[in-house]
Design goal:
Keywords: Signal
Protein name: Putative peptidoglycan binding protein
Shape: globular
Distance between the termini: 64 Å
Pfam families: PG_binding_1
Radius of gyration: 23 Å
Oligomer: single chain
Number of strands: 0
Organism: Plantibacter flavus
Length: 147
């Protein structure tokens, strides 16, 4: 009988540890979900998910730096585009002006915000067959572009 009791205690301990681990994981996901659900910009550590968020004036971080790099690449190809943005990760007036020029050129809703529609074009450099030599593929991939 003592062997059964000991075995039951081991199972109870294992079950309890599993439940605590699951509860901790669920709490972590709940906290992460509530923070991610409210935020409009991805943290720099999650730069691979930049395309899932919107960015506008006042935003900052690695994703904004990727946007600036992409806009600099497109800039010379767009009349009135800005191609000499400082890549500082700060979504300031120059970055907003470059986004507006980009959106105007591509016939998008012009709001100065990098959202899903703007990301779709920023992530699509091909204007013909094959890769293009002027496009910053590393910044695009770091942003989560599927290229």
């Amino acid at each position: 009988m003592p062997e059964q009791s000991n075995e039951r205690n081991i199972m109870t301990t294992r079950t309890m540890r599993s439940r605590i681990a699951l509860a901790g994981a669920a709490l972590g996901l709940a906290i992460a979900g509530s923070v991610g659900g409210v935020a409009t910009a991805a943290p720099a550590a999650a730069a691979g998910q930049c395309v899932d968020y919107q960015y506008s004036a006042g935003g900052d971080g690695g994703c904004v730096a990727n946007i600036q790099t992409l806009l600099n690449a497109f800039g010379p190809r767009i009349p009135g585009g800005v191609s000499n943005l400082e890549v500082d990760g700060q979504f300031g007036e120059q970055t907003r002006a470059a986004v507006v020029a980009f959106q105007t050129y591509w016939g998008m809703q012009v709001d100065g915000v990098v959202g899903a529609e703007t990301w779709n074009i920023l992530c699509a450099p091909q204007m013909g067959p094959g890769p293009v030599d002027w496009f910053p593929y590393d910044a695009a991939r770091a942003s989560g572009c599927n290229i």
